[in-house]
Amino acid sequence: MQGKPSxxxxxxxQLGLGIFGFWTLAPIAWLVVSSLMxxxxxxxxxxxxxxxxxxxxxxVEVMNSAAALGRGLANSLIVAVSTTAVALAVGAPAxxxxxxxxxxxxxxxxxxxxxxxxxxxxxxxxxxFIVMSHLGLIxxxxxxxxxxxxxxLPIVIWILHGxxxxxxxxxxxxxxxxxxxxxxxFRLIVLPISWPPIFATAIFAFIESWNEFFFALILTRQNxxxxxxxxxxxAGQYQTVFGQMMAAATMAVTPVVxxxxxxxxxxxxxxxxxxxxx
Amino acid sequence: xxxxxxxxxxxxxxxxxxKQTALAGAALGPLAGLIAGSARPAWAxxxxxxxxxxxxxxxxxPGDAKFSQDALAAWEQAHSAKVNYEAVAWPQLHDKMATxxxxxxHVWDVIYMSGWVPEFAKFLQPYAEKLSPDLVSDMPxxxxxxxxxxxxxxxxxxxxxxxTLFYNTxxxxxxxxxxPPKTWDDLKRYAKELTRDGHYGWVLNYGDPAGxxxxxxxxxxxxxxxxxxxxxxDGMPVFNNEAGxxxxxxxxxxxxxxxxxxxxxxxxxxxxxxxxxxxxxxxMMNWPxxxxxxxxxxQSKIAGKLGGAVLPAGPAGTASIDGTxxxxxxxxxxxxxxxxxxxxxxxxxxxxxxxxxxTGWLPIRLSMLAxxxxxxxxPNAAVVLEQSKHPYDSFVTPDYNEVTQAIGTxxxxxxxxxxxxxxxxxxxxxxxxxxxxxxx
Amino acid sequence: xxxxxxxxxxxxxxxxALLPAVVIILAILAYPMAASLWLSLHHVELAxxxxxxxxxxxxxxxxxxxxxxxxxxxxxxxxxxxCEVALVVGLGLGVALLLNHPLGRSGFFRVLLIIPWAIAPVxxxxxxxxxxxxxxxxxxxxxxxxxLIDNYVTWLGTPGRALNMxxxxxxxxxxxxxxxxxxxxxxKIPSMLYRAAWLDGANTWQQFRFITLPSLRxxxxxxxxxxxxxxxxxxxxxxxxxxxxxxDGTVLLNYLAYRETFNFxxxxxxxxxxxxxxxxxxxxxxxxxxxxxxxxxxxxx
Lengths: 278, 440, 301
Description:
The structure holds three protein chains of three kinds.
Chain A: H1 7-35, H2 39-42, H3 57-65, H4 67-100, H5 106-115, H6 121-134, H7 141-166, H8 170-177, H9 182-211, H10 214-219, H11 227-233, H12 242-262, H13 264-277
Chain B: H1 2-5, H2 14-38, E1 47-54, H3 69-79, E2 81-88, H4 93-103, E3 110-114, H5 117-120, E4 124-125, H6 133-137, E5 148-149, E6 152-153, E7 155-157, E8 164-168, H7 169-174, H8 184-193, E9 200-202, H9 215-225, H10 242-256, H11 269-277, E10 281-286, H12 291-294, E11 306-309, E12 325-330, H13 336-346, H14 349-359, H15 366-369, H16 372-377, H17 380-387, H18 400-415, H19 421-439
Parallel strand pairs in B: 1-2, 1-3, 9-10
Antiparallel strand pairs in B: 3-12, 4-12, 5-6, 7-12, 8-10, 8-11
Helix pairs in contact in B: 9-10, 9-18, 10-19, 18-19
Chain C: H1 2-40, E1 42-47, E2 50-55, H2 59-66, H3 68-100, H4 107-118, H5 121-131, H6 138-145, H7 159-187, H8 191-199, H9 204-215, H10 217-232, H11 236-241, H12 253-263, H13 267-292
Helix pairs in contact in C: 1-13, 2-13, 3-7, 3-10, 4-7, 7-10, 10-13, 12-13
């Protein structure tokens, strides 16, 4: 906005930014801080922040009692990467086709894709479970990869479709005139310039898969447990050591948050461009 | 074998050949047996048993919880079996079970149950009819009431888990109270008097309406103390009377005078237990397990200051409810006898004793409850035994989940003053009638 | 001549590229969705390892209309979604404006935008449950230290307060992402427009009303759609924070569907509730899409 920056104006902007910063950071800071505090310190009123209250014991306990956490991290990683890869491999060409070619039924198809985002996952849980158990895919990472496609694939198509719509057709036309096949155009021209949004979509799908809780709850047992399940297990029925719960939660969210921070430019740019153009 | 014999067959007569083979076989046979004996032979039949259980610190079997692991290994060896556990946090058990049963997939052989036997009876087999008489005679007969359905016995309860009163002896001293409350009036009075010095008289988890350990189940405790019961012989609700209303009124009176207001938001018992263990509340009802973490200085501020007593008596005396933690066997288990033997192992005297000493969960075996070591380590065992001499019905039916959800929700509304106890009980009765009728 | 074959080739490529995706979506989603619709028209009983169904038409849906829990869930969901969308988009716009200002250009704030979104909903729920703990929660401690409250408040203790807390937590988690979206939209507005307006004597507020808002129309619409749809899918938070209580005060439609299906094993009526959510969302989505594309597709073949 243009205008003479008044002192009051600057001050209020700074105040606003400050409030936003505090509001967003404070809970997360508390997550980490309380994970480093002892139960006795946390249950004092007010909480006891003296140096003796701080310890790494919570993390030690979490790592000791949960070989599951290590397995959970591994499973989450494998499942998230695989489902993202498949979603992209299948979804990018599909998005391109929907964007460029007047195919019969592409309107309803797009609508169907949007519709799939609206279904609360829990209702398809029982039919999906039945199918998965007939196929012997319960408690398997493959089963999770397939089930997660149900929300990753539509998202990939939706976002990339918007992005592909926005690319000027001229470049592709020129290549076509030069004799390139459609596949070549897609591979050699469209994909390279789409790298940022594709990457961003990949990160997005990865994170959604990593954080998914409900289907993981229903469809896994021991072997294919993912991280959100492990966190939820730290709230047993009879005891809550708050510091341990926070430690487990911290360990669970840190990988994803770090990835998100590192790749934030791509995520922000690619995703918003894709969403807006839709 | 041929290489060992060595000489070409043509230079030996057939007799010699056979003799030498036999000798070699005789020499090597025992050797092979020796090798095989110390490791499980590849050709022997190892039956796999899969067990579905809660995660510790909830009641968990050896192997899942860390006790009696050697005994389990020895049992596995002796029965050529391998026990695999799937353990989840307690609140997730019912959902997982429901999904699995609904899909028809066979996944588990031995399954932990807590109040769900009537609901899932169709998926279980009445293996408990074949339990060894020694075991059955060492168990309180009423422990089978929550695992029987339509005349068949589906499970074996493995821990004596009744709600009893826990109180802070230090708070009592400071308030000049020498004895635990014996009646409802005492309870109300004590709760009021003990609310001071930064602690409340009473705490309980009122946040979850349903299930055993939910609000409705607590009301059922008081209902029995008032001489009432849930269902008549026809399965219809019969609690819409003075007993039902008085029981709810007690909860309201307690809530308005002396209860930690956070109670309404404590969903699991652990939230309430934490309040107790940090010295912020003077009394609560809880499961026997509470004793052990209360004595642990890293978890509790009241180590050594916990007292246990039988629940205060209502008009009809004291009563409680049963945690009903039991082992059942699924209907399509491939080796039901082996599963039964595993359950008998879980309930064997030594395992039961270790269960008590190491995890704090009381044995169900009367002999182990009376065992000197157990009594010494868990003083509240005597209290629980005393409580077990009075009624403790959990009123488990196939609709237990839904019924307790409905009743619990009404109770929550009443506690918050949205309606009177009389209105609420009337409403509960109507809703439960509808639920029972829907089942047909 | 070449043009026609090009067309055909492109069309064939298009179908080939689209087909796998459509097949997968039909297989993984269409069947369960159809199955769920099917289930909602039946009375479903679990019987010895198998599921026994008896057709009852729309009886499940009719029963819902009479059900107190359902009606409460509808009103809870309506309140929740409307408030959440208003707060998230409104406050998100504010944040976006702040970050668009020269003072807010630092990367630090961009980092802040991405973190709440990246945290798993379950982890977020566990964290906030701890913050709102009525005995040891830091919120109570801080407010008491600041002298704003005398006694610790049971934040999740009454139905109204619990629902509002649910709102607070999900708004906290959702604002950054929507702000991000809106920020991208803001950055596309040419500064030339503002300069021209300023030269014409428009003040900040007028600039906002006549330049910013209209230019953001599409982006705002998208933000509203997304947030509405997401508000209907909320589950992890209710499950961990309140389990629908107290007194059904935080039961949202999605959670009700779960409870009917998994706690009471009323598979038919659980499916009915979920389908209700689905149809509501579908209608909303169609309405918004219509709003977005008034003229239909314009891309030539």
